[in-house]
Design a protein that fits this description.
The complex is a heterodimer of chains A (166) and B (435). Chain A has 166 residues and is α+β, with helices and mostly antiparallel strands. Chain A contains 4 helices and 6 strands. Chain A is elongated, with a radius of gyration of 28 Å. Classes of the chains: A alpha+beta (166), B mainly alpha (435). Chain A: This is 4Fe-4S ferredoxin-type domain-containing protein.
Chain lengths: 166, 435
């Protein structure tokens, strides 16, 4: 990187003009005041448009009869880097596996989306939602019922054939 | 209708009502000026400003007031307790009472007599405002000293120094008004502007400019907010204050602003006067007159309720404009350096005010000698003042009223050019110097 010196010539005090600069400044501020170009988003009223691959609060997909699609294979708690998924699997009399306990701690979760990627039956998803504020900490542990009731759209997985997501 | 001044019990009732109403109006205006300040600054900076509490944020001042009332107060351990408490009170009290002598509308006729739309038409008028307005700085000095904090103390010192410097120019710029009016009551000054047919801002234009600049300095507003100077002194004199005590300083600042704006409107823009002589009214030897006819006989005024309301609206509009000017300038002009403030005060404002005083006095004397009066009197003085103003602006602007920040004969700030001889120049080996 070349190092160069440059001498900035500032106007002499006798060459400066305070009043004119002030009037120019006042004209500028008045113009901005009358024609304000605000870029602030008025959040609760104006919602943010989330990207289709935004990873937020989880969603558990359900069958038509209301059962969770999860087969309690145990892949998501295994792959989870934050170790925030607790899964206790069970088996009904027909030999179908289902989750007895399925809890996600949204506080521990880093929203990497690997649970969704690894799920063989496309049951657990990260979703397009970020408004999950609560008044108490224990409310952030989402149980199976609550995960099934989430109604926001789930995140689009990355498609190697369409890397830009178009 | 009875055109005699109101007396007795109705006078007592009317005065009490006027005090209560004007106190409410002043406090409300102060509260909403704080909101206007935040909203206007937001618009100027392309933001929204407070718009959550109520429609357009209109209930924000009430929310702020409630918050400040219930907030915990911090009392510094090393502070002088009684003076620490006295500071905000001493700042707020004078700021609120100065409004008492400002006439805000044409007299109101009622069945009990004519009510003057001024709380107290005291004969010392403007002297009362000068005396009490200067008292406000005691609150700042006492508060800053009692805080036992270096920044607060520096702020207080600056406040007093600034007040002393600009009080002189303020007083001198007022003398030209008093010479024109021949009266120190504000009602008399408004009346003289009505009689002359000119609002004093025209025949005394340089006086108006000097008054506005000094009033900005007196109210400690940018570009003269030396006592606060956030970037240098935290917040200056009220560094240690919190909750309602801070709020009282805040109210005092805005009340001073309101009074100064009302004074600019009254002294130089006719107060509640509207163009034309239909609304003129003045107590002359016990009777309410509108003017004099050619033979010198009085013409009785015709006060009316709608005239009172209309003139009040005019007064409110003028005052609101100057309040806006305060806010507008605050969010445009950066703060002066301390020595610049002192230099402007003592080396420019004071001599200019003195010289202008002499010019106006001489002009009035000459015009009186050649017996010019009325409209041509105002016109001549306007011409003289315009010449003075142009000369002042020319001098203040260092030789060029409409010239750029850099002179055309010398090049402006240098644009960085590519290094001659390509890259690889290292300082020490031979750095290039652009020109």
């Amino acid at each position: 990187m070349a190092i160069t010196t440059r001498v900035v010539q500032r106007p002499e005090p006798g060459q400066t003009s305070y009043l004119r600069a002030t009037l120019k400044g006042m004209a500028l501020t008045l113009r901005h005041m009358l024609k304000s170009k605000t870029v602030t988003r008025q959040y609760p009223e104006e919602q943010t448009e989330l990207h289709p691959r935004w990873r937020g609060t989880h969603v558990m997909e359900v069958h038509a009869d209301g059962r969770p699609k999860c087969v309690a294979c145990g892949l998501c708690p295994t792959v989870c880097p934050a170790n925030c998924i607790r899964l206790v699997g069970g088996e009904d009399d027909k030999g179908n596996r289902y989750p007895i306990v399925y809890e996600i701690d949204e506080f521990r979760c880093i929203f990497c989306g690997m649970c969704q990627e690894v799920c063989p039956v496309e049951a657990i998803h990260v979703g397009r939602d970020f408004e999950n504020a609560e008044y108490t900490r224990d409310r952030f542990v989402y149980d199976l019922d609550r995960l099934m009731k989430q109604d926001h759209p789930s995140t689009l997985l990355w498609d190697p054939a369409d890397p830009a997501g178009e | 209708m009875d055109l005699s001044p109101i007396t007795g019990v109705p006078l007592l009732v009317a005065t009490s009502l006027k005090i209560a109403i004007m106190f409410g109006v002043v406090m409300l205006t102060v509260a909403y000026t704080t909101l206007a300040e935040r909203r206007v600054s937001a618009f100027i900076q392309d933001r929204h400003g407070p718009n959550r509490v109520g429609p357009f944020g209109l209930l924000q001042p009430i929310a702020d007031g409630l918050k400040n009332l219930v907030k915990e107060e911090a009392l510094p351990g090393a502070a002088s307790k009684s003076y620490f408490m006295l500071g905000p009170m001493l700042a707020m009290g004078p700021a609120l009472v100065t409004f008492a002598v400002v006439p805000f509308a044409a007299p109101l006729p009622t069945q009990w007599g004519v009510i003057d739309m001024i709380i107290a038409d005291v004969p010392i008028g403007i002297l009362y405002i000068l005396a009490l307005g200067s008292l406000g700085v005691y609150g700042i000095v006492i508060g800053g000293w009692a805080s036992n904090n270096k920044y607060a103390f520096l702020g207080a010192l600056r406040a007093s120094a600034q007040m002393v410097s600009y009080e002189v120019a303020l007083g001198l710029s007022l003398i030209v008004v008093l010479m024109m009016a021949g009266n120190v009551t504000l009602t008399g000054i408004v009346w003289q502007q009505q009689q002359l047919g000119f609002w004093f801002a025209f025949p005394l234009s340089l006086g108006f400019i000097l008054f506005v600049v000094s009033a900005f300095a007196e109210t400690n507003r940018l570009p003269f907010d030396m006592p606060e100077a956030e970037s240098e002194l935290i917040t200056g004199f009220h560094t240690e204050y919190s909750a309602m005590k801070f709020s009282m300083f805040f109210i005092a600042e805005y009340a001073h602003m309101l009074t100064a704006s009302a004074l600019m409107a009254t002294l130089f823009w006719g107060g509640w006067d509207l163009p034309g002589s239909w609304d003129d009214a003045y107590w002359y030897r016990g009777e309410l007159i509108r003017g004099f006819d050619e033979s010198g006989a009085t013409i009785a005024a015709a006060p009316a309720v709608w005239k009172t309301l209309l003139t009040f609206a005019a007064f409110a509009l003028k005052t609101a404009f100057f309040l806006f000017l305060y806010i507008w300038i605050r969010w445009t002009v950066p703060r002066f350096r301390y020595d610049q403030v002192m230099q402007l005060g003592w080396k420019i404002m004071l001599p200019t005010a003195l010289a202008y005083l002499m010019v106006v006095a001489g002009t009035i004397l000459v015009l009186d000698q050649v017996e010019v009066s009325g409209f041509s009197f105002g016109l001549t003085l306007t011409g003289v003042s315009v010449i003075c103003t142009v000369a002042f602006v020319f001098f203040l602007d260092r030789g060029r009223i409409i010239g750029g920040a850099a002179s055309p004969s010398k090049p402006g700030p240098v644009v960085l050019e590519p290094t001659p001889g390509g890259q690889g120049m290292i300082a020490g080996e031979g750095a290039t110097v652009g020109d």
